[in-house]
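Retro notes
What went well: the complex prediction finally ran end to end.
Inputs used:
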Amino acid sequence: EAGVAQSPRYKIIEKRQSVAFWCNPISGHATLYWYQQILGQGPKLLIQFQNNGVVDDSQLPKDRFSAERLKGVDSTLKIQPAKLEDSAVYLCASSLRTGEQYFGPGTRLTVT
Amino acid sequence: AQSVTQPDIHITVSEGASLELRCNYSYGATPYLFWYVQSPGQGLQLLLKYFSGDTLVQGIKGFEAEFKRSQSSFNLRKPSVHWSDAAEYFCAVGANNNDMRFGAGTRLTVKP
């Protein structure tokens, strides 16, 4: 069974630029999550989708972050414009409606 | 508000020695509790979870954890540590797969 795929694995951009991350969840997993993991901290949930609907985006900085999950499968997370404090690893995870979350390898973003 | 505290930022143990990683949580309802492990450059992998029932939970790779409601704790243990256990360990609390909150993590170093 293929795991959660994310791309790119690494990205370096300058502040005020925009960036997008892509996630392909495990086939059949209805729930998809995006987390932000800043160095030295635990993952922080940014947004949770159930199929293509948003379940929780309470911690998503909506002035600069956006996410979508078209057709209830793949998802993209966008930052526009990026700030220095956005430097982090962005993790995507998926799960069945209940049960274990499976995490992808993450995208390491560096904002200079 | 729910939160997770992992008091130990970094722990070093000798290979073959026993291990206990501490986790304290704050949660308004009956919590779902999780322990995840993260190796460098990898996503998180679920070690074990507690939903209800027996308060001593067995997980993968020889790990176990004990839920103590009176102490709001969910400590992770392993009787004999292997060099391959060196990694970052995260405790998390949530309502099943919703509203997950992660601790800041404990980095485990294993001495030969």
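What we learned: Chain A touches chain B at residues 4, 31, 33, 40-45, 48, 55-56, 91, 93, 95, 97-106 (CB under 8 Å).
What to try next: split runs per interface for comparison.
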